[in-house]
Amino acid sequence: MNENIVVKVPATSANMGPGFDCLGIALNVWNEVKVSKGPFSIKVIGKGQDELPTDDNNLVYKSFRKVFEKIGETVPEVRLECTNGIPLTRGMGSSSAALIGGLMSGNAMAGFPLSTPEMLRMGAEIEKHPDNVAPALLGGVQIGIYDQGELVTARVPFPEDINVVLYVPCQTMPTDQARNILPPEIQRKDAIYNIGRAALLVQCLMTGDLGNLKYATQDMLHQPDRQKQFFPMKNIISAAMASGALGAFLSGAGSSIMALTKGREYTIGYEMADAGMKSGLDGEIVFTSPTARGAYIEKD
């Protein structure tokens, strides 16, 4: 049993516009989980330090514990230190990062009894859908689907020189609230609209021919309904596109807006923030990039 573990987990952005519940991308913004043997304690530093629980209801600890429950061993007494760079309830995969951080650190402390696919299945079962969990664990752009209860994932190559600009509002958008606003049924024309654009998005990323990203990141399955809940979204996306973004969309269930870029990042960020301000929002701009690397254990 390993005594000291450090796990790094990336932020993620789900859906990517048309890929609702099926597509996600890992971002170069990280959470860190340090686990060591000792009297039980949990310390949270950075994002969520005044909001997240520091008892056994902490999501990192709950998923750490699940590893030992699965293998039928006693949960060891540990100290957890979580240093979070990922904002909470902003559509950047903070809960998936916590899940994966707990599962990976628990697996490492237990001597690696679980394979990566097993941890992926466990994370997706807890999170309910794989579009954040898969890129958090595996990195890059990931497609995730279920077939008769079996999770299938596939990596999509993407250009290494693509950048990301995120407008992260102070306004939160809890995932369950954003999901509950969606109607239970959709129209066929909207399904066709999204199928074509999701296919085009994969083609753009795989070939590096990014001229069609402005179409490939459009959506009719979730963004129009979430627009009713988060009215500045359309204006911020329009501002990103007008100032040179290749594509822009609501990140996960929101409230962050993500733009894919190759140049003009500061102009795009400024215009997104200005559009947010004109809609009565405060927020911050995050400049980053996709990462092909998923969660990993840091070597001493």
Automatic annotation (TrEMBL):
Domain GHMP kinase C-terminal positions: 210-263
TM spans (from-to): 236-260
Record bears the keyword Heme: no
GO-annotated biological processes: threonine biosynthetic process
Molecular-function GO term, any one: homoserine kinase activity
Keyword Kinase included in the entry's annotation: yes
InterPro entries from the UniProt entry: GHMP_kinase_C_dom, GHMP_kinase_C_sf, GHMP_kinase_N_dom, GHMP_knse_ATP-bd_CS, Homoserine_kinase, Ribosomal_Su5_D2-typ_SF, Ribsml_uS5_D2-typ_fold_subgr
Pathway: Amino-acid biosynthesis; L-threonine biosynthesis; L-threonine from L-aspartate: step 4/5
EC number: 2.7.1.39
Domain GHMP kinase N-terminal, chain residue ranges per copy: 58-140
The family this protein is said to belong to: Belongs to the GHMP kinase family. Homoserine kinase subfamily.
Name of protein: Homoserine kinase
